[in-house]
Amino acid sequence: MTGLTAEIVVEGHVPQAPALAPNGQLLCYVLAPTSRIGDHLDTALWLADIEDDDVWRRATTDTATESRPRWSADSHTLYFLSDRAERGTPQVHRLTRTDDVVIALTGWRAGIIDHLPLADLNLVALLAEDEPTEQGTRRAQDRDDAIVVGEREPRARLRLLDLCTGQVTTPSVFGDRHVVELRQRPNGGPLAVLSQASADKDYGPRTGRLHLFDPTTGTAEDLGSVEADAHSLAWWPAEDGWHLGYIALTPPVLQAGTAVFDLAMSSSLRRNRTAALPMCPTELHQTDAAPLVVFADGLNTTLARLDPDGPTPLAQHPGRLDALTTTPAGTAIAALTGTRYQPTNVHVGPPTGPLRKITHTRPELDGITFGTQRPLAYRAANGLALDGLLVLPVGKSASDGPFPLVTIVHGGPYDRYADRLQLFWFPSAQWLATAGYAVFLPNPRGGQGHGHTFAASVAGRVGQEEWTDILAGIDLLIAEGVADPDRLGIAGGSHGGFMAAWAIGQTDRFRAALVSAGVVDWGMLAATGENGQFEAALGGSTGWNGIGPHPHDAVSPVSFASRVRTPVLILHGAQDTNVPLGQAVYFHRALRHFGAEHEFVIYPREGHSIRERNHQLDVLRRTRAWFDRWLQP
């Protein structure tokens, strides 16, 4: 029997972006490595006839980053993006099933961001930035490339590729707006176009607008503004005509609480179709009839049909169900899902289930024994129902406790733990379980899967009720004899890193902590992070709200650095734009000032997620060694 090693964790491959052909017979997906060696992530397209032999074959052989497979309306042609000609610059390619020949269709110098084959088999809609000017191609020493913020910012524009002529045209109907998503009405007709005023991740999501674009006449109609962070466009017919839906944040809270919004084209009436539901929509998918909605539902996932009277549940799936793809009739689906002890794979079947697994992308995990994983249901201090997961050390049962317990808090905070295999490149439950740790994965307030109110309750109150929700779960595990109260650790990345940093400033109960890409000052994050307005909603204020102290000071871990007595490992990517490196530097300097035990590690070239193979290996080994040092399993 093979033991779990860091190499096995980071050297695996994961399926992405399944694309089911309209005929329901052919399926393509992207296979991507967990880690990257070199400057580019080399991916591959795999293709199978799932109605015949289920035999997979690699559709392309070039070394390239390949992504976004899309089928033509007649299922004869597969379109996808590949940077095989120039690494880092993706172009649209075509694979024709009759001869299996791959042809590059574009040579757009700025690269193609996304594409959508249209009902007119001679047209493909593209999203692409403007091609670089002569100024941008000059030698470095001759350039006058000062950046004036707000001027000449990159914009993704709608463009049309004529497959007969090979020409790319750019309709000048959306002004200088940044186009983010397209969806054509079933059986042809206009395109729904979602745009923002800017590609700026801080400013843009609050400026969304919907448009109709007629690819035949080249004309457009403005349908008005949409809620923040709108995405996942879908059309459907109803008795009163066509409807257009999307998922967006429920106003006025910016950081959480997604809903399905329904725009009736005949009346311009817009409704929230998922208000008050105890679950959260994550994907909306178009069919020729009523659309399908994927809901985060506690630790599991519910697939529903959006009927006139509201969502009708079709099936519940354990853990997560992601990247749904469906035939036009909606009678067959494919998606990514797994189990507690099996990694994510492509599954197919009817929307009512059951789904059958048709890929086996991580055979290296066969034969590995994982720690027992079980759902937890418990109550917060005020009686609110909560859930989470407990993973026990490999080969142990709860009666063998108490064990050293590491609590890993998820990010977001609008994310969740689902009842799936908890094994990732970052310190995850099964990685620590192999070293003798019990691991608690809580779903406190602010997260996804329990409705809007649950998610929105942390706005301006981070570190308050969500912190006591986590403590309630830890106290339960101590009372049950699972956790050793003298050997408690806490960890997390991103918002989970904030919670770990917050925890050690509030209590001395933890003997070790890990803060990965964590938030330590909400005011600074609102000012420098790429999602500043969202962070301001979480922290409760900004530094320009007048003379302090500000509300965000009271919920920023750096304000409590003088209290830290817990040894803490700080990990951060040097190029992180989501939570900039300055957050970690600030915490490091504060802890150094007060003489607190800590170690600070910076990963060059890395962003908010660590991608390079050697860096991922270092994260896994270093973090487990850190907890071994202080918790002694």
From TrEMBL:
Domain Peptidase S9 prolyl oligopeptidase catalytic, chain residue ranges per copy: 429-632
Any GO molecular function: aminopeptidase activity
One Gene Ontology term from the biological process aspect of the record: proteolysis
Family matches, as InterPro entries: 6-blade_b-propeller_TolB-like, AB_hydrolase_fold, Peptidase_S9_cat, WD40
Protease recorded as keyword: yes
Keyword tags: Aminopeptidase, Hydrolase, Protease, Serine protease
Any Pfam family: PD40
Protein name: Dipeptidyl aminopeptidase/acylaminoacyl peptidase
Biological source species: Saccharomonospora cyanea NA-134
